[in-house]
Amino acid sequence: MRKARNPRYMVERELCLVTGNANKELAQKIAKHINLELGKLEVSTFSDGEIRIEIDEHESMRGKDVFIIQPVCHPVNDNLMELLIMTDALKRASARAIAAVIPYYGYARQDKKVKPREPITAKLIANLLETSGVDRVLAMDLHAASIQGFFNIPVDHLSSTPTVVNYFKQHGIGGKKTVIVSPDVGGVVRARDIANRLNSQLAIISKRRPKPNKTEVYKIIGFVKGYRCVMIDDMVDTAGTLVEGAKALVEKGAKEITAFCTHPVLSGSAIQKIEDSFLKEVLVTDTIPIPAEKRNKKIKVISVANVFAEAILRGFEQRSISELFH
């Protein structure tokens, strides 16, 4: 049992972790890092498919600081509703504070209006979370950092960069013979940060999307001939961006191509595309669980459970979280 003293009220606060069905494996890893058992909470459905949440009768939530670990991944709508209903249940069970730990923030790609009459779903999800009773959000590598501004509650935007940089260094990736590649202009900040940490060069792929999940590469800005290239993106969905980008890099003379994408959405024929591509390896994190049928020899999973565990502890103990990523 993890406790902390609140100096204002001179009472002890108690930390509690719970999870839904979205990514139980990651939740268990986080709990193990914190040396804490997951709260006893059952997620089931009624016969018509409605989600039912039941907190164990011996599991009191009164006065606790509860962290719900639940990515909004496939099946997206079910996992989102689980998160909202769990929050409501905990609020009605008199939890002192509720933090939504959302490793993958779904519906984030619609974060602005590109065309008339389009929704802004990233803002809609923020509204739903706040209305349900969430007091704080922890998320990793949001599709756009500006999504933090959609909330009127604190948002801790965690980064996978230190984790993947350590992996690259341990496996001899980096230095002057490596080029870090951003697959689009929007990812330049993340790619430049990794390039600086690895003392490597930077290149940018100029592309356009004629329609959702369809990518066309225009040109590559930077020199890649004879270099090992590492493509950096926040997610891999249909893998179109990675595969087309890798093909363009090979045509420009790149020697070897690896990719790192934080969130392995891997929808449609993504696995087959990666298998048939010029990509040597695709590194992803465990923010989203990968079912057995979607695993292959090219996909390598790096765990970020320790990052979430440390962020949760620091948030609970009211210590700086940003220090984790310096």
Structure commentary:
With 326 residues, the chain is α/β, with parallel strands linked by helices. Helices cover 28% and strands 29% of the residues. The protein is built from eight helices and 15 strands. It has a seven-stranded mixed β-sheet, with helices on both faces. β12 (228-236), α6 (240-251) and β13 (256-264) form a beta-alpha-beta unit. The longest helix is centred in the N-terminal third of the chain and has 17 residues, at 76-92. It is globular.
- Roughly what fraction of the amino acids lie in strands? 25-35%
- Major β-sheet strand ordering: 11-10-9-12-13-14-15
Helix residue percentage: 25-40%
What are the low-pLDDT stretches, counting only 5+ consecutive residues below 50?
Answer: none
The biggest beta sheet reads: 7 strands, mixed
Distance between the termini: 30 Å
Q: How many individual helices?
A: 8
Write the layout of secondary structure elements.
Blueprint: E1 3-6, E2 11-19, H1 24-34, E3 41-45, E4 51-55, E5 64-69, H2 76-92, E6 97-102, H3 121-132, E7 136-140, E8 155-158, H4 161-170, E9 178-182, H5 188-198, E10 201-211, E11 214-221, E12 228-236, H6 240-251, E13 256-264, H7 270-275, E14 281-285, E15 299-302, H8 305-316
Parallel strand pairs: 2-5, 5-6, 6-7, 7-8, 9-10, 9-12, 12-13, 13-14, 14-15
Antiparallel strand pairs: 1-2, 3-4, 10-11
Helix pairs in contact: 1-8, 4-5
